[in-house]
Design brief:
alpha+beta; Beta Polymerase, domain 2; 23% strand; 5-stranded mixed β-sheet
């Protein structure tokens, strides 16, 4: 679960990201998503506004996190993902909501792909 100590001092509470991305981060956290972060990538990427990145210890937890994100965003916003990829092996589940993406990794895959490093210039958004 994400703790205050794990969050960067660079958290930007005023950075504009879709409200549903905040819901997604909280949903992931409720299922013990590890080190859940929101990156505001809209200025750099242009095709989406935010990445929600989290991870689980195994494929079962990754699926549980993805299911909870889908449920909570649907319940609160009435939205479903445009597309979900990666549920078959659940090493990296990508949920595309259009204005934001949710990446749910198994721990080893998150370390390997290291999206936070790749998007290190993107502001982190305070979400809790």
């Amino acid at each position: 679960m994400t703790t205050a100590a794990a969050r960067s001092v660079a958290d930007q509470p005023d950075t504009a990201v879709p409200d549903a991305s905040l819901l997604a981060a909280r949903a992931a956290d409720s299922k013990l998503g590890d080190q859940t972060v929101i990156l505001s990538v809209g200025d750099a990427l242009g095709i989406t506004e935010a990445f929600v990145i989290t991870s689980g210890g195994n494929a079962r937890q990754v699926r549980t996190i993805a299911d909870e994100v889908e449920l909570q965003v649907k319940k609160a916003e009435g939205r479903a993902p445009i597309r979900i990829e990666g549920l078959d092996d659940a090493r990296w589940v990508l949920m595309d909501y259009g204005d934001f993406l949710v990446h749910v990794f198994v721990d080893e895959a998150r370390e390997y792909y290291d999206l936070e490093h790749l998007w290190a210039d993107a502001p982190r958004v305070a979400w809790s």
